[in-house]
Design brief:
179 residues; alpha+beta; 42% helix; single chain; four-stranded mixed beta sheet; elongated
Length: 179
Amino acid sequence: MSKSTPRGAVAKFAAGGKPTGKKDLGLIAMSYGNVYVAQIAMGANDLQTVKAIQEAEAYDGPSLILAYSHCIAHGINMTKGMNAQKLAVDSGHWPLFRYNPALTKEGKNPFQLDSKMAKIKLEDFEYNEIRFKMLTKMDPEKAKSLLREAQEDVMKKWRFYEQLAAMNYATPATAANGH
């Protein structure tokens, strides 16, 4: 099963619902330290999307933009795809951020968390999609358990991203100058 499939989703190679969390491709790319990385969802925040694309294009180095893309395989009404993107962000499933390594040279934190903490429950996003809802019909107890674990995944990731966003990158020289 794909490492990119979210926990609890039913997919081709995860017929019983994926039992593990998905990889964090953005965090993997950020670990290199020299890659511009942004996670965007146009349906949730078009201004953040444009800003990320502009920053990525202006960055002197490799850039990676991870865009939430609704898909017919998610089992949604494709005319409501932008709403699906908003729900993904509002539930914390797809937090918006930008990581610009160039900011460290200015003594600034390269990680900018652009979305707010989840304001809806994860199930309010997931159960709008057949790939998650299907498991509630096949194995309701397993679906409930995986949803609980996926909600914990969202909260852990959010806390980690908040810590990244709060880090102080001021160098002694910039701190002395009041920056």
